[in-house]
Amino acid sequence: MARTDKDVDLVLAVAPQPVTFWLELGSYEGGSAIVTAKRVAAQKLETSVIAVDTFLGDARVLWERDPEERRKLLRPDASIALFDRFRTNVHRAGLQSCVLPVPATSVVALKLAISLARRKVAPPGGPANAGEPWAHA
After folding, report:
1. What's the whole-number average pLDDT of the chain?
2. Closest of 101, 104, 63, 65 to residue 85, by C-alpha
3. How far apart, in whole angstroms, are the C-alpha atoms of residue 84 and residue 92?
4. Which residues contact 83 (CB under 8 A, 6 or more apart)?
5. Phi and psi angles of residue 66, each rounded to the nearest 5 degrees, phi first
6. Where are the alpha helices (DSSP H) in the chain?
């Protein structure tokens, strides 16, 4: 079990139960969101994993890669295809029903989460409720 697995398991063990909502800030290519969704599934929890990132990258994301990898990341309009890579990684893992990518800054995502919590609006829990609209708790 990798460190990330243990970290997720620790949080799931000490968090108030049931854990129905997991907000990840800074999801990059989806690795930790995928690990989280797998650990949640292994524990048979119905948890939505919300993965927030701008998916814009930075200079390091692009220029520290070899030329072939750089070409794969750059779109014809010079934007970076991190969001596409994230979605592909989540889809390959078969977790698209419980991982929701949100292209936003961390600040915007936190403000949204706070606003929804104040109104007692909660996301559906995990794969069993995939596709259901957000509902009042």
Report:
1. 85
2. 101
3. 12
4. 55, 101, 103
5. -70, 160
6. 3-14, 31-42, 59-63, 67-73, 82-92, 106-118
Taking a C-beta distance cutoff of 8 angstroms, is the pair 24, 51 a contact? yes
Amino acid letter, residue 20: T
pLDDT tens digits for range 71-89: 888 888 878 889 999 999 9
Specify the pTM.
Answer: 0.80
| Complete domains list, the chain, with CATH | 3-125 (3.40.50.150)
List CB contacts of 81: < 8 A, sequence separation 6 or more.
72, 73, 74, 75
pLDDT for 1 beyond 70? no
